[in-house]
């Protein structure tokens, strides 16, 4: 992602974040059914081999790409970058909880309810995520990351609440799709806000800093409540717009 940001100006920050993330979540959409098929046919060893071999193919793609020249300007210190981006970073962290809840617990929810094909939820999530980024990746750059994060965090929270309330697998699948659609632009939204608060040479560090006993369905209620806190952060950012750093 830092490589992509070094190739474009700040007006395309949202697109870079969106397209890199789309590639990652395409792997979720494809990997879930592929992994299930490999496991059914050849066992866990086949999944392990495929997981180890697939990233090696990346070398064939990146080895031929030109290097990016370093930016020789005074850099913000680590403390200065943290001070500039901690608010959008907190929003991104809160908004990421829905993603974590789906990837960690939705298959367990399906299993606990006796619903088959829990991997369908991963594919529903990833498909909605990718479609949102394909059609709306330009929106954070166009209207502001805080506004986009505000709306999309609400959509993500609604998806988590639908999973919590689900009494049929179809409801959980729709909830997973809403979560994916909402989260798709939460990170680019907060990412745009973070990048606008630091100079170009510190953009990679800024994005690196923001990346990171009950019944099973209650997990998604707690996740929805947490994601709603990201809405409050986005609202604060809307009231305190950034002045983009240039040096």
Question: What's this model, at a glance?
Answer:
By secondary structure, the protein is mainly alpha-helical. It has twelve helices and no strands.
Q: If you had to describe this structure to a student in words, what would you say it looks like?
A:
The protein has a single domain (2-239), classed as Growth Hormone, Chain: A (Up-down Bundle). It contains 12 helices and no strands. The protein has helices at 2-7, 13-42, 44-53, 56-62, 78-95, 97-113, 119-136, 139-143, 145-165, 169-195, 203-210, 218-239. Helix 6 runs antiparallel to helix 10 (169-195) and helix 9 (145-165) packs antiparallel against helix 12. The two termini are 21 Å apart.
């Amino acid at each position: 992602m830092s490589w992509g940001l070094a190739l474009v100006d700040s007006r395309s920050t949202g697109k870079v974040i969106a397209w890199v993330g789309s590639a990652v979540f395409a792997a979720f959409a494809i990997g879930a059914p592929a992994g299930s098929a490999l496991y059914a046919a050849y066992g866990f060893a086949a999944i392990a081999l495929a997981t180890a071999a697939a990233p090696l193919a990346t070398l064939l793609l990146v080895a031929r790409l030109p290097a990016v020249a370093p930016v020789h300007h005074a850099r913000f210190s680590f403390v200065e970058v943290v001070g500039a981006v901690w608010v959008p970073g907190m929003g991104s962290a809160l908004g990421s909880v829905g993603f974590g809840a789906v990837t960690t617990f939705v298959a367990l929810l399906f299993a606990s309810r006796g619903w088959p094909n829990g991997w369908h939820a991963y594919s529903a999530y990833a498909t909605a995520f990718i479609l949102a980024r394909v059609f709306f990746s330009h929106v954070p750059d166009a209207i502001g990351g805080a506004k986009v994060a505000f709306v999309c965090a609400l959509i993500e929270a609604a998806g988590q609440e639908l999973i919590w309330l689900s009494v049929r697998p179809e409801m959980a699948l729709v909830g997973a799709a809403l979560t994916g659609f909402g989260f798709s632009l939460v990170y680019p939204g907060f990412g745009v806000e973070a990048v606008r608060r630091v100079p170009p040479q510190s953009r990679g560090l800024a994005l690196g800093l923001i990346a990171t006993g009950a019944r099973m369905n209650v997990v998604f209620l707690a996740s929805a409540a947490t994601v709603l806190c990201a809405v409050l952060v986005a609202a604060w950012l809307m009231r305190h717009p950034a002045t983009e750093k240039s040096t």
